[in-house]
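User: My collaborator sent over this chain with a note saying "see what the structure looks like." That's all I know about it. Can you take a look?
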Amino acid sequence: MASFIPTLTPDIPEDIKGNQKAIGQFFIDFSMVKICHKATKLGKNVKYMYEVLDEDGDGNLEVHEIMNGLRDKFNIFFGQEESDKLSKFMENEKVEGGGNEKSRLFYLWNNYAEK
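Assistant: Without extra context I'll predict from the sequence alone. Here is the result:
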């Protein structure tokens, strides 16, 4: 019987090995592709996913809410390294984005949804 592996981790392309910034971006891109792919399979968009994750409707999502919600509500699983890089990226985006957390994360998700 075949076993189900909930995480899919990409192989690092040879041309970026050793370049930590490029590797970090590669993992973020890979993670966002998984999120956008799931939205497409559901016939929804990233805005819908954001709204589902925002259970109290206040427009603010913490990184742990996003990561846990993607796993629990949408069955999107991340490997440890992928999860670490995506979480760190979202934390950095929140800090750089200032006080408007919703628009910054929403912009990030929509930006990837268009790619």
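A starting point for your reply to your collaborator: The helical segments are 20-41, 46-53, 63-74, 80-97, 101-114.
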